[in-house]
Design goal:
Its main location: other. This protein starts with 20 loop residues before the first helix and ends with a helix. It has 14 helices and 13 strands. It has 347 residues and is of the alpha/beta class. The chain has 2 domains: 27-199, 3-Layer(aba) Sandwich (Rossmann fold); 210-345, Rossmann fold, CATH 3.40.50. It has helices at 21-41, 81-89, 110-116, 131-136, 150-160, 175-186, 189-209, 238-244, 252-255, 288-295, 298-301, 304-307, 316-323, 329-345; strands at 57-61, 64-68, 75-77, 96-99, 122-125, 141-143, 163-164, 217-223, 229-232, 249-250, 265-268, 280-285, 311-314. It has a 4-stranded parallel sheet with strand order 10-8-12-13.
């Protein structure tokens, strides 16, 4: 029994090692989660069973190698958009996934709901991971490639079940890499390859259907709740790559701007809204009020793209489809975004 749980202790005592209270509580939760898993499954790992053809499978990642001993039947996703999308696209609905109600109505994307049907995952508040709840679910695989704080929680999670971390780092893997790695762990590599081929074909078809996109410039970025205007200034940003695959080119006016603390983003001062001008200007807004304020600004109204109608206010859901691409969100983004771009560029 851990010292802090002894019957002689009136209350838990923080060890005198410089360990912060937050880390101590995290460690205590991890111990409790491990105990819960042992109680539920009779052991501290995945349920027993035959390995089956192709198993065990090793999935190497930045946090370590996840060895999946047998085909998973109980999957938990602690990543945000891309882990859950990949699993559902492959026909596996995770038992648990983060609640994204802050960004998406109902906490789940429309493209995921459309694919999953009535087999939707249960949601948990995306603040601190609910280790005991995860352990109680008895997962035999945990998906964590799309969790920014995975390094902090990886040891605890991998003590519950094999946990897949990103191949290159958070927000660095392409959607193709993610679905192939998750497909390998799920024993569905062939399905993953078919999905990659299908989605890439849809991108090519959209580009070929709109040859007028080739070489036309764009700017795209979010306007946050306080009205601060930011723009994507890196061609390697996911949204820029999405539009680039259609033949569009990120405006050189923004690619040399200094970046904020968020890689690939630059802030636009109210006096330099002209930097947003391009053949098509795309903005998304955190709130209706932030949109109303910016569109009322005289300097915004003077931007040539705005004046000729080549301004596209993109809804948050579609913006997320572009910013966090998956085998499910990319087709949704093409469907919702391409007609708006075509109409704007025709003006």
């Amino acid at each position: 029994m851990p010292a802090w749980r002894s019957a002689d202790a009136a209350r838990p005592q923080l060890p005198r090692t410089g360990l912060g209270r937050r880390d101590f509580l995290r460690a205590a939760t991890a111990l409790s989660a491990t105990a819960t898993l042992a109680a539920c499954s009779g052991r501290s790992g995945a349920p027993e069973g035959e390995a089956g053809p192709g198993y065990p499978v090793d999935v190497r990642g930045v946090q370590g190698t996840a060895t999946v001993p047998r085909r998973p039947e109980r999957v938990v996703s602690v990543g945000q958009y891309r882990d859950t999308d990949a699993a559902v696209a492959l026909g596996v609905t995770p038992l648990l996934t983060p609640d994204l109600s802050k960004f998406l109505p109902g906490g789940l994307s429309p493209w995921l709901k459309a694919r999953a049907g009535d087999r939707l995952p249960e949601l948990f508040a995306d603040v601190e991971l609910p280790f005991e709840r995860i352990a109680t679910a008895r997962p035999d695989l945990i998906l964590g490639t799309d969790r920014s704080t995975l390094a902090r929680d990886y040891r605890t999670l991998s003590g519950i079940a094999p946990t897949i971390s990103p191949a290159e780092g958070y927000n660095k893997d392409t959607w193709q890499v993610t679905i192939r790695r998750i497909g390998a762990a799920l024993g569905r590599s062939a399905d993953a390859e078919r999905l990659v081929t299908d989605v890439e074909h849809r991108i090519t078809a959209a580009k070929q259907a709109h040859p007028g996109f080739a070489g036309r410039t764009f700017t795209i970025g979010p306007v946050v709740a306080d009205g601060t205007v930011t723009t994507i200034s890196s061609t390697q940003d996911s949204s820029a790559l999405f539009l680039g695959q259609l033949g569009l080119v990120l405006s050189p006016k923004v690619t040399s701007l200094p970046q904020t603390s968020i890689p690939g983003r630059s802030q636009i001062s109210p006096e330099r809204l002209d930097l947003l001008d391009a053949d098509v200007l795309v903005l998304t807004y955190a709130t209706p009020e932030s949109r109303k304020r910016l569109e009322a600004e005289p300097l915004f109204q003077r931007i040539p793209a705005v004046q000729r109608g080549a301004y596209v206010p993109l809804d948050m859901t579609t913006a997320i489809a572009l910013a966090f691409p998956t085998a499910l969100s990319v087709p949704y983004g093409l469907q919702e975004c391409v007609p708006k771009l075509a109409a704007a560029l025709a003006r």
